[in-house]
Amino acid sequence: MKDLLKIRSWMIYAFIFSLALFVSCEKDESKETPEQIATKEKLIGDWKLISSKVDGIFIGIEDFSYLKESFANFSPDNTYNVTYKKISNGSTSTSTLSGTYTVIGLNSVAFFNSISEINW
């Protein structure tokens, strides 16, 4: 049961990781580049999870089924909210993660200390 909960926890993180390609770096106070502006324009809005990978391997349909109802919203003020279903002790609940994101470059965004890939 603990292993199943660990897998499900990783799937939640995989959802977050699947949203964008993240590169860890310090926030740069300089002016945004054209690539950063273009990426942010595409990123802003609502997103729905359609697939998820962990370590390059797609999450199976059984494990992914409750995560497919997850979604994220990226705002122009560099904040995000990720709402997802979580299974614990046989019951399902909805949780939300919030924070800030940083556009690193073309199709590259950092948030939640994670690395993911944006598929437009």
Automatic annotation (TrEMBL):
Pfam families recorded: Lipocalin_4 (PF13648)
Location of the Lipocalin-like domain: 43-104
Entry-linked InterPro entries: Lipocalin-like
Organism superkingdom: Bacteria
Protein name: Lipocalin-like domain-containing protein
